[in-house]
Amino acid sequence: MPRQSNSLEWYKKAEVDYFSAFMKLWLSFNALYSRMFQGSNFGSNDRKYIEELKNSNNFLKTKFRSLFDEELSEGKEFKVYLIELMRKYDGGLFGGKRISKNERLKPQMNGDPLEEISFKEFIHSRSFQLKRTPIGYTKINEMYIRNNADEIWTYYIEVIYMIRNLLIHGGMDPIEENHKIIKICYHTLNILIEDNV
């Protein structure tokens, strides 16, 4: 008869390491957006690709819009993860720790460096007290967020790029809270690119 510790050890080995899974998924994403903009002569400058991804009309932005509007299972799943990312990532705080910004980790919008980037402006300030959906907002789970997929797209891409930078440049502690955030990033990005890789 197998020992209990045997089942526990196998159970532990079955846990997904989302830190490494996200990095592998990012490699796929990186190759995808490099291919999308291959005629742009951006070379190996990731920032230029990210700005183009955020600001041009492209098939990933279109997919993001359709997932944001979709009420079927894939869209619902995507929005659940997106809302969790919006809740967890709070401007200068990440996993409860203040992020010290440097040029690699500083967010940008339209080429201008920002001190902070946050999803707060998209979430209704009285989200949990409202009885009806306010005009211009959509309800996802228990939160009301602005019904503007294009604006949220630019923040989403910037935030996951900054999270990728934090992870790859050693600015993220390998703690459980950060693992949860990386898991959320993994699932949103996986759903977003799975049909186009």
Lay out the secondary structure.
Elements: H1 4-14, H2 18-36, H3 46-55, H4 59-69, H5 73-88, E1 93-94, E2 97-98, E3 108-109, E4 112-113, E5 137-140, E6 143-146, H6 149-168, H7 176-193
Antiparallel strand pairs: 1-2, 3-4, 5-6
Helix pairs in contact: 2-7, 3-6, 4-5, 5-7
Mean pLDDT score? 84
Find the structural class using helix and strand composition. mainly alpha
Helix content: 40-55%
Q: Number of domains in the coordinates?
A: 1
Biggest sheet layout: 2 strands, antiparallel
Strand runs, count: 6
Strand content: 5-15%
**Helical run tally:** 7
- Helices and strands, in order, run as HHHHHEEEEEEHH
Distance between the termini: 45 Å
Provide the low-confidence segments as ranges: none
What is the molecular shape? Answer: globular
* Oligomer status: single chain
